[in-house]
Amino acid sequence: MQRSDYRPKGKEEDLTETVSKKQGGTTGEERRAEQQIVGEKKFRQSSRMQEFKRRRWSTRPSVLIDQSITRKTIMTSICTVRVSTRADNVKGRMLARRYVFAYRGSSAPFASFGRSILSIRRDQVHSMEGNHEASSLELELESFQKQVADRFHDLSAVNSEDLLSLSWIRRLLDAFICCQEEFRVILFNNKALLSRPPLDRLINEFFERSVKGLDVCNAIRDGIEQIRQWQKHLEIVLCALDSHQRTLGEGQFRRAKKALIDLAIGMLDEKDSGSVLAHRNRSFGRNNTSRDNRPPGHFRSLSWSISRNWSAAKQLLAIGNNLAAPRGNEITATNGLAVPVFTMNSVLLFVMWALVAAIPCQDRGLQTHFSIPRQFIWAAPILSLHERILEESKKRERRNASGLLKEIHQIEKCARHMTELADSVQFPLIEEREAEVRQAVKELSQVCEATKDGLDPLERQVREVFHRIVRSRTEGLGSLTRANNPE
Amino acid sequence: MEKNPPEKSPSFACPDDKKKQDADRSPSPDFIAIDAKSEGDHEAEDREEDREKVDEASSDLDSSLAKVSEEIDRFLSTLFTVEEKSNPPEIPNHVDQFCMLVEAMIAKYDSGEVPSKWCQVSEEDASLIEAVDRISKLTNALGEFPSESNYVSSHNRTSTVLHRAMLLLEEEFRALLEDSRSGDSDPGDLRMKQPSFSSNHEHDRCVLPEPDSARAVNFPAYSPEVVSNLNLIATAMISASYDKECYQVYSIARRNAFEESLNKLGFEKVSIDDVQKMQWDSLEGEIATWIKVFKRCVTINFSGELKLCEAVFSDHPSISDVLFIEITSGVVLQLLNLADAVAMTKRSAEKLFKILDMYETLHDLIQVIDSFFSDECANKLKSETSTARCRLGVAAVSIFCDLENSIKSDTGKTPVPGGAVHPLTRYIMNYLKYTCEYKDTLEQIFQEHQKMEQSDGPDAETETTPCPYNNNQTPKPSPFSVQLVTVMDLLDLNLEVKSKLYKDLSLSYIFLMNNGRYIMQKIKGSAEIHELMGNTWSRKRSSDLRQYHKNYQRETWSKVLGCLRDEGLQVNGKVSKPVLKERFKSFNAMFDEIHKTQSSWVVSDEQLQSELRVSISAVVIPAYRSFLGRFRQYLDSGRQSEKYIKYQPDDIETSVDELFDGNAMSMARRRT
């Protein structure tokens, strides 16, 4: 398809035309003012567009979401965002320089963002003709940088209480989905550029990474299921020491203690998966000798989608492998598109890493290295989150946790408290103790409820992330092949 | 489990010791270690006590149980009628006695003295179940009086006994689930392994599932006795409020068993990433297994699992639903994973058929989902299944549409020798023939795809429907047939370009005829393609072919026939000998040349070959014969006639029959 097909046919073009007609007769000062208006108008329109799209997907059920960013929407957005495919060397160099400015202009408030960029340009464009054509692609890319930065600034503003809580993880996934959608629109709007080297390679690499992310999503889904299994132990504890029971007898305490032991064994995070399996086997009650004679493979993990030798740590390493910020000449050669590709790669890596950090999954490992140059405006919040999560993982009480999710920690704390209580009680039970137990049960049931309520939406969201990645990849690869086989 | 050595220690002890060790070794949260230790100690003490009690009690166990039970029942009924909670009756000694009796029974099981161990419902099992039920009621009743210290301490006692009984039942339940499956081996094996019915089998207490079809397909392969025991234990645990433990054990054991059964069929979990890296041959194998496994799940495993759930939890239908979903929905998701992964692999033509197979399999699943799963879960699985299926559909469409590209990109500049059928024609037609074996599926996929595109497209209403109904009789052609026609048209176009590579115009017609005929034959050979392409198209093709034929005739033979015309032979009203000689000479030369070149040309379709020969003979031979008849007289007989009349009409026929043999040597041989 020819780029010219997408040329806007409405007022937008009229305006631009007037501007370019005027250029001959007006002073440089006026011209720049005009340019600025046009630029800002486009910028506003495109961000309105994105707002619209965001609303669309967020209000529709997930099946519909699959088609929610319909081609219609994207087409319309193309009409508002003009894209230039002609990139001469001068402009390329310009672009490279301008992106560095874009990263640095991090403190510019949103409203004045467009203007500040344009004023930077004013000094550079100056005598260059025809350069204003490129502005919408540049604005689109700059706005993406800004959006990503804003989202992660929001996420990193979390207090240490809520960091890695279920609700925070869900916000993180929300942010990922938004970034992914915006990135998808950028790819769609610049189809013609995608198949040109080196961008084609960069995009292909991105899709390869995102496929690896899919396996992480599946592992996380299993992890969520595992937490659900833990909850079942807790439910037994709650059932045994239920507040409806008028008398808490020794039998009830024994029942609760058994469930707590099973839970504790289930929650062990051990590198050696074999012994985890052995534990898990025992976690469902007593053993007898006949079972001990079995081959170790008999007790498998409850994981459904991940093969036995799969490793989250290795998968994260594979996603992060060879991920480096684009060089100046790469930015130039790709009309700047190498930057959002790198951005999205980093977002993907970070989000997957954070998921693995929070949720139990096979062979967790957080040694992934993040090499993000500080001049990207989103680097600071991501790197600070990375650091905070890493610190969390090094805390003494969390070092052996099977997931850094706050709710898991709460479960652990409650379970430990409960275990201590159950161990210390003596029969007949004195009133004071009983009150204490009843209080602990209450707390435990609150933790249980909160976790339960959060897991289902989280699971759906992880699935949504999965679907989005698949769809974006299918589309992206589709337009790559189509570009290679022109009609 | 009947293999347990008799000296086996009570089962309580060993796991706890193990637990302690493990807990000490592992860098686990500290609460485990403490707990495991204390629990272990408790149990060890208990065990000692148990031993003594067993010795004391076992003597009069059987005789006293019935009597004590009666006493307990009486006590229970008085407790139920007590109105004032503050003033309950004295607790009789029987309570303590009863506890001891039950503990003795449990100990007997633990020590492995009960030989049959639940493979059949023995008298002992039944009485244990009965006792457990009684102690559970007793515990509940005693717990109603929290202010009475006697009651509280009795409650401690009974609840502990109850807990121990429950541990035993839980363990037995798991053992039954895990060990008494006869595997997926043949049904005969199953009978052998299970002990025969005993006389005291309690029909009235258990709901026996009719093992009719289960026996035939042998999944999940529990004997009816085992199922009834499972039901017995489940009922006992649930009524003692140990339902959660029961569900947990059941769910885990069945999930593992289900997965194991898939593994036995050769199914392995593969990550999406690995699938992308896999060679197609090995992936093809995975897909074949996947299809087998999926079909088996849909036809056998799911219904077997559902039946088992319903049989074991016959009194709790809602629970059996939940458990069934827990056990199987994970399997479905796991299976769908491979569909997703395959849909994401690099597209290539050879993958189409396997992808269509997968698509059809998922289609089958969607058809039956409702019959297995309750509404909410069915919806979730359905949407996941449809999504996966949809992805396969998109992959199939894109692979099929990619045929266009492979035709377009076939721009070789070397003509096929002899005007034979081009490899591209063969490839495309054979591919289409296979493809059309999936006609219905592809029709469906393309239909769905079009709907998707239309709902997506920017101007669906205005442009994509170019007045489909020109008259009411002709239905709109299906999107798949449109695509098929597109492919065929592209192939035609490509062949036309290729035909221009031949310098000899006649040969290019032969090339077109050959390929055209091949295409027609393939289409005739496949009812599906024929139907899709329609009669009009076939008629058009046939007339094209006839046209090529005519063109060929004209191109090759009109000049030859020109030699045999009357015009120009006569000079001043007389036949001119030199002109006549010239005519014979040039006829001979032309015919020789044609024979020489065209016998090396290839027409592999026999019918076409004979049609061509017949049509040539029909034109050339009569003309030659009559020419010969009329003008031979003007040549001097003898040497001159032999010199100019090289061929008799019969020779012409023989030579024509040698055309299009693809044999460059035929002429040379003849010449000698």
UniProtKB/TrEMBL annotation, chain A:
Topology in the lipid bilayer: Single-pass membrane protein
Segments forming domain R3H: 431-487
Record field: compositional bias (Basic and acidic residues): 1-13, 28-41
Organism: Tetracentron sinense (Spur-leaf)
Superkingdom of the organism of origin: Eukaryota
Cited InterPro entries: R3H_dom, ROH1-like
Protein name in the entry: R3H domain-containing protein
PANTHER family: BPS1-LIKE PROTEIN
Principal cellular location given in the protein's record: membrane
Renumbered residue ranges of the record's region Disordered: 1-41
Cell location: Membrane
One GO cellular component term: membrane
Keywords: Membrane, Transmembrane, Transmembrane helix
MF GO annotations: nucleic acid binding
Family: Belongs to the ROH1 family.
UniProtKB/TrEMBL annotation, chain B:
InterPro entries according to UniProt: Cullin_repeat-like_dom_sf, Exo70, Exo70_C
This protein's UniProt keywords: Exocytosis, Protein transport, Transport
Ranges for region Disordered: 1-64, 179-203, 451-476
GO biological process: exocytosis; protein transport
Ranges of biased composition (kind: Basic and acidic residues): 15-27, 36-56, 179-192
Polar residues biased stretches: 463-476
Chain ranges of the Exocyst complex subunit Exo70 C-terminal domain: 289-657
Gene Ontology CC terms: exocyst
GO MF term list: phosphatidylinositol-4,5-bisphosphate binding
Pfam families (alphabetical): Exo70_C, Exo70_N
Superkingdom to which the source organism belongs: Eukaryota
Family: Belongs to the EXO70 family.
Function according to Swiss-Prot or TrEMBL: Component of the exocyst complex.
Protein name: Exocyst subunit Exo70 family protein
Species name: Tetracentron sinense (Spur-leaf)
